[in-house]
Specification:
The chain is an alpha/beta fold and about 180 residues long. About 25% of the residues lie in helices and about 20% in strands. Bound molecules: S-adenosylmethionine.
Amino acid sequence: MQVASIIPSSRALIRRVAKKIDFTEPRIIAEFGPGEGCHTRELVRRMHPDSQLLLFELDAELAGHLRAQFAGDERVAVFHADAADLPQVLLKRGLNECDYVLSGIPFSILPVARKRELLQRVYDCLTPQYHAALLIYQVTNELVGHCRHFPRIESEYCLQNIPPMFVTKFYKTANGNPRTHRI
Ligand SMILES: C[S@@+](CC[C@H](N)C(=O)[O-])C[C@H]1O[C@@H](n2cnc3c(N)ncnc32)[C@H](O)[C@@H]1O
């Protein structure tokens, strides 16, 4: 139930997701449910040297595997923690906000109240800049109905994955300075 999938994301899906992040500047990125790290490796490959990537993985074994995998990269920190701990983890690291949250957790099976609470926390933690966004890849696009507080939403369907997935970007702001928006 927690993992919700036995097949990791495809290369095509990983690229589609990564293309939605502006890596041209240092970014604070949180990833929820990295699993064995298939999206993480792409983020790490593209990330600016001064970026930070915070990984939240509930499964102890997977968290240990991620720690070993990214031990040589100071930009990456692994937390064997619930995604809902994002505000506390940011605070502990002396950060007030982040630029992107990439979520691979099975949001659709969360009880509605928990889902909405987590989405509100993510919204509150995102920096109020044009590029900042929550990115999700999911079989259904049901989250759109719970994300009314995100003023801009973009969605596309990725057929090259088993199963096909919606890739949806929920932006923090309605508008602003689009100069940093280069996807
Ligand atoms: C479907 S797998 C995704 C794995 C990988 N990101 C991929 O694309 O193949 C979901 C992952 O989310 C983790 N997970 C589920 N709920 C979580 C939560 N509340 N906080 C952090 N991780 C969670 C699971 O342990 C699992 O590793």
